[in-house]
Amino acid sequence: MTSASVAATPLKTLFLQAPSFDGFDGGAGSRYQAKREIKSFWFPTWLAQPAALVPDSRVLDAPADELSVEQTREICRAYELVIMHTSTPSFPTDAKFAELLKQDNPNIMIGLVGAKTMVDPEGSLKATKAVDFVCREEFDYTCKEVAEGLPLKDITGLSYRESDGRIKHNLPRAMIEDMDALPFVAPVYKRDLKIENYFIGYLKHPYVSFYTGRGCRSKCTFCLWPQTVGGHRYRVRSAASVIAECKWIKENMPEVKEIMFDDDTFTDSSNMERVHEIARGLGAMGMTWSCNAKANVPYESLKIMKDNGLRLLLVGYESGDDQILLNIKKGLRTDIARRFTEDCRKLGILIHGTFILGLPGETTATIEKTIEFAKQINPHTIQVSLAAPYPGTTLYKQAVDNGWLKENDAVNLVNDKGVQLAAISYPHLSKEEIFHSMEVFYRRFYFRPGKIWEIVREMLASWDMMKRRLREGVEFFRFLRAHEA
User: Fold this and answer.
1) Does 23 share its domain with 64?
2) What's the rounded Cα separation, in Å, for the pair 213 and 233?
């Protein structure tokens, strides 16, 4: 399909998360690189946001709705334009699904969005002729203009294929500066999604998550979105806008028990007065909320947040070794993280701590150090991941330059079952050692008498929590068995 053949009239548009692995994580508004230890789904915020700009469009999340390939194809047949979110590990199956849609309707227009297409627009288009265009940079308004039927050649931030097969790259699209101009995503969730399908082990159910800003000032070498789509400038919505969307959720989605702010670092130090204002607004409404935080928030701010409905912080500790934290430019030390964690414990703020194994500088000794660090600070729950060198990140370039990873080998971040693989291998530490250190970490953290009793107490306090933790426990043991195999 060419720009000349696109009618200057609006196209019936579907924003799609394509069918994927059973239990493939909805990962923070896009699809995470692997199945998690328990089945979980994040809201597809990155698709819901442009959908909110396109009248009469629809968001379809096939993995969360447990739709088969055939069921999803049937729904897609009713649309003229399908825009799919893709990622490096999911790209091969997403490309195949695009080819099936073209078989069903050769005239359908198909586009891809996400960090994968931002980093490699040419390769994404060359991989399959079924894809007509890909979006680069922030793609909200790019998608809107495509859906309006504007000629592809006139849309910034777009790469597309002409009728003669040549690939064209339009000028880049400027970053969005007025974040308040973006419409709320919650009404799209209510209209198109089954919110009961979205659950995260450490959040209340049902929950809703959305972004109050984009970008992250931190320079972590492994983190994908700030190095690709979002940028390192933290651009935020006003506190009034955030509070207004939360009020809309309270009034129109009364079943929601918790709001999660998905910003990479909601508690950025440049942003704390705004955080306080948002917290007080939510406190006045009696709402429960959680957010992503760096392990350096001052006690005074934590207290304001806790006093106004904060329940849990998602904190990226990454490692218990200070040299590794320096290597990855985390901008944090373990002593600061310890003090922050103790402050949260004093205030009654729960923490879901995330750790990464296999980062530059990792050894068997540092893995042991991180496991002991996790046990000592004892977050309520943890998530252990393997270093994932996504193209477009400093970690990817570093891994290729040092021979820790073969170029273009990042597609092998997961196996055919969706289980995350160790992609980086060091002369002194093999992929296999890194891979199997994950289950060791989980077992040594959770299979302690104190932690087991902590979980049992939580289950005894609520029948809903009892049922939930039992289900998650079954999934967790299955995950460990699959990982050990």
Assistant:
1) yes
2) 10
Ordered strands of the 310-318 beta sheet = 207-210, 258-261, 289-293, 310-318, 350-357, 381-386
Task: Tell me the mean pLDDT in the region 11-35.
Answer: 63
State the pTM of this model. 0.90
Shared-domain flag, residues 112 and 211: no
Q: Evaluate the omega torsion of the peptide bond into residue 106 and state whether it is cis, within 30 degrees of 0.
A: no
**Both 150 and 204 in a single domain?**
no
Q: Quick one: 230 and 150 in the same domain?
A: no
Q: Would 334 be classed as within a structural domain?
A: yes
What is the mean predicted confidence (pLDDT) over 391-414? Answer: 81
Lowest mean pLDDT among 131-145, 183-197, 242-256, 407-421: 407-421
| Overall number of domains in the chain | 2
Examine the domain organization and report whether 153 and 231 are in the same domain: no
Task: Report the distance separating Cα 47 and Cα 229, nearest Å.
Answer: 14
Q: Which residue has the tokens 């999934």?
A: 475
CA–CA separation, 395 and 416 (whole Å): 24
Domain range enclosing 81:
3-169
* Beta strands at 58-61 and 13-17: parallel, antiparallel or unpaired: parallel
Confidence of residue 24 (pLDDT cuts 50, 70, 90): very low
Please check the confidence at residue 43 and state whether its pLDDT lies above 70. Answer: yes
Pick from 123, 153, 169: which residue ends a domain?
Answer: 169
Same domain, 256 and 389: yes
Q: What angle do CA 165, 170, 172 make, to 5 degrees?
A: 145
Give the tokens for residue 224: 């994908």
pLDDT score, position 483: 62
**Is residue 468 one of the residues assigned to a domain?**
no
pLDDT tens for each residue of 63-117: 889 899 999 999 999 999 999 999 888 888 899 999 999 999 999 999 999 989 9
- Residue 292, C-beta contacts closer than 8 angstroms, at least 6 positions apart: 261, 262, 263, 264, 265, 266, 267, 313, 314, 315, 316
The percent of residues in the chain predicted with pLDDT above 70, rounded, is 89
Q: Which residues pair with 159 in a beta bridge?
A: 134, 169
Assign residue 266 the CATH number of its domain: 3.20.20.70
Contacts for 311 with CB less than 8 Å, ≥ 6 apart: 204, 258, 288, 289, 290, 349, 350
Residue 74 included in any domain: yes
- The helix/strand/coil state of 173 is coil
Question: Is residue 273 a part of any domain in this protein?
Answer: yes
Beta bridge partners of 382: 353
Per-residue pLDDT band at 443 (split at 50, 70, 90) = very high
Same structural domain, 441 and 374: yes
Q: For position 410, what pLDDT does the model report?
A: 54
Instruction: Verify that 155 and 74 share a domain, yes or no.
Output: yes
d(CA 405, CA 394): 13
CATH of the domain at 23: 3.40.50.280
Identify any residues that bridge with 383 across adjacent strands, giving them in sequence order: 354
CA dihedral of residues 190, 195, 197, 199 (deg, nearest 10): 140
